[in-house]
Amino acid sequence: MAGGTSTLRQIISELRQVIPKENLKDNLMLKYIVNQYRKYQTTDEQLCKAKEEMDFMAKTYLCYLQSSKLCRKIHEEFHSKGERTVEETAKMVGFKLPHDPK
Amino acid sequence: MTSCKISALFKSLFSKTLFMSHQQKSCEFRSYGTVKRFYRKTNVLKSNGKYEISLDQRKLKTPKGNIFSVESEPLALAVAAEWDSQNDKIIRSKMHITTLCNTVLDNPNNHTKFDLANYVTNYLDTDTIIFQTNEDEELYKFQANQWDPIIEWFNERYDTTIQKSVEMLGPTVAQKDKDSINRHLMSYNFNSVYGFVYSVDTIKSVILTMACVERFINVEKAVLLSRLEEEYQLTHWGRVEWAHDLNQQDLQARLSAVVLFIHCNNQSSKIQTKNI
Lengths: 102, 276
Prior knowledge:
The complex is a heterodimer of chains A (102) and B (276).
Chain A: H1 2-18, H2 21-24, H3 28-42, H4 48-78, H5 86-92
Chain B: H1 2-18, H2 22-28, E1 35-36, E2 42-47, E3 50-55, E4 58-59, E5 69-70, H3 73-84, E6 89-90, H4 96-106, H5 113-123, H6 137-158, H7 175-186, H8 190-203, H9 206-213, H10 219-226, H11 228-237, H12 241-275
Antiparallel strand pairs in B: 1-6, 2-3, 3-4, 3-5
Helix pairs in contact in B: 4-12, 5-7, 5-8, 6-9, 8-9, 8-12, 9-10, 10-12
């Protein structure tokens, strides 16, 4: 179950980053995921296949949250501001402008 | 591929505007610009056995103006979480789970399940992983090493005889194999088959899609395999964050949304039978 718990923790931390603070306490998605984990933890001997399936889906959801976040961050960093100024471009590749102090 | 679709969409929209009266126009078009977040809380409501999303006191609607409702509880929760995670602007283009649900609810192109299944089956002819290189020895080894086990798994799982090819023309997939894949797809419901279409368009491979949905490989691996040549070239030419990483994360987000979507759409019936 160790692997499962770490996935659960990661999902919670990802949701925490994107969902507004005041909505976190009674967020239904969080409750649902935790409930699912509890449900399959107690019966994992009988429902082995379902547990595996849930584990896969939890990892998939985690992947969805992480990839969406990274995608948004990269987009914000590089694509959302329009054209860069000459200074910014120079700084990106480690150059200075002619009139800048050395 | 996407640019082609966008131009087709523009064409269809444009031709509609030409032949429509003003009244029709106003109800057909909704504002698609970026909207600021106008709600505080999202919630999931149950009505008539289906789940709906509420944004404060408003109900979420699809682009065509239908009430947004899905049969699966986890799916509704995922959509609600997606809306809740919009910061100050609502960026619809990055809400893949919502997009998938909207498309099957509105079905803007009036596709039938049969059309969609056919589209997926015909994609097999141009599946990424059956085209392997004959120019670069090292890349070929890499491809054979990574892709062949997946093709083998696929042939065994669906009782098909798909062969890889190193020729320009590519292999032909037997009609018998296509039929059997088609039958398999038709056993899913409409929503799931649409999910397959979206996934095939995303990672350009039916075989990888099936392997991922059947849990033979995970999402990260499927995306990695679909961009295997890119990944190989990166080792020679270097990695650029705003192109390669962006592409990889975008594909991963899209594919994982599809896998969740297909899973949720199939799970609902299972849960119902259990409860009885």
